[in-house]
Amino acid sequence: MKKEKTIFSNIELDRIIEMAWEDRTTFDAIKFQFNLSEADVKVLMKKELKFSSYKLWRKRVENCKTKHSATRVQGIERFKCNLQRSITNNKISKR
């Protein structure tokens, strides 16, 4: 069965790359949101990044235990950090 190639907008590409670089975001989250497997993300990153950046990313992913849901520490069930609001300077609080 041949896989259909999806064309992403620049905003979606930027978000996929951002999620791939984040340590806490699993490949499962990328699959859920963009329907890209880990292998698809690797191909996309190789195509979109400079080769040296791609090598750095691959080395980082291989050593990161939080990128794969099976190797994550128990208790991490979210995709964003507790400090996300202060990092992004989001002033809107949930009430």
Automatic annotation (TrEMBL):
Pfam families: DUF2805 (PF10985). It comes from the Bacteria. NCBIfam families: TIGR03643 family protein. This is TIGR03643 family protein. It comes from Flavobacterium psychroterrae.
